[in-house]
Design brief:
This protein has 224 residues and is mainly beta. The protein is built from 1 helix and 16 strands. Strand 6 and strand 7 (114-124) form a beta hairpin.
Length: 224
């Protein structure tokens, strides 16, 4: 089980939407919002950065939904090659759940996505908060498309998003759209329905290779 600490509520940013390709059946891509009909009363979304990486917030919690047998996340592109070392998604549920953490890759936005990372985390709820992939090391290539998010089976899980007008640029690239998957994991090759009207609440932690200057090391040593 991996869950990030919770911290005081604060505002920030998130987004995604998708459909699954199973058994060779290709679903029709659509701008339909698959969350409609599962709305819930919203709660606060907190902000808890880690110190070992550059971290980026996406979406928020102005809209909340619940359901089972689905996946949610956002589609990203990157201007330069990067390494993803952790990601978190703001969820809420009661009891135990098996959460699948996915990084999906495709050469085209509307193409078939292949999982390049799958992490399975049996998790006990601590209430609303960021649920984490834990430490990973996934290489992200400039020019490729990445669906990053979580999926789950029969458990009822609350998930959160903000309204958005996607695509939009961010520090390292573009948030292309939101991802909605209407089938339980695990996934192999999938295609998803791309919804551009929302951004799901999540964080990406990107490896930061910027060297620490010698003067900074001196300051650190003087403290200890």
């Amino acid at each position: 089980m991996r869950i990030l600490k919770q911290s005081p509520v604060s505002d920030f940013i998130c987004g995604a939407a998708a459909l699954l390709l199973i058994g060779g059946v290709v679903p029709v891509l659509s701008a339909e919002d698959l969350d409609m009909g599962s709305e819930q009363v919203t709660i606060g979304c907190s902000n808890d950065p880690l110190s070992y990486s550059s971290w980026y917030n996406f979406g928020g919690t102005s809209q909340s939904f619940s359901g089972s047998n689905r996946g949610r996340g956002n589609t990203f592109t990157f201007t330069e090659n990067e390494q993803l070392i952790e990601f978190t998604v703001w969820l809420d549920f009661t009891g135990d759940a098996t959460i699948y953490f996915y990084v999906l890759e495709s050469p085209t936005l509307d193409g078939t996505y292949t999982p390049i990372y799958e992490g399975i985390e049996p998790t006990s709820s601590v209430g609303p908060g960021y649920y984490s992939s834990g430490t990973i090391a996934v290489d992200l290539q400039a020019g490729m498309y990445y669906g990053i998010g979580v999926a789950w089976g029969p458990e009822t899980i609350f998930y959160f998003r903000d309204a958005a007008a996607l695509p939009r640029t961010w520090d390292l690239g573009t948030v292309e759209d939101s991802m909605q998957i209407s089938a339980p994991p695990p996934y192999t090759e999938i295609t998803y329905n791309h919804f551009t009207g929302s951004e799901y609440c999540m964080q990406l932690y990107i490896y930061d290779s910027t060297p620490v200057e010698s003067t900074t090391w001196g300051q650190i040593k003087s403290i200890f």
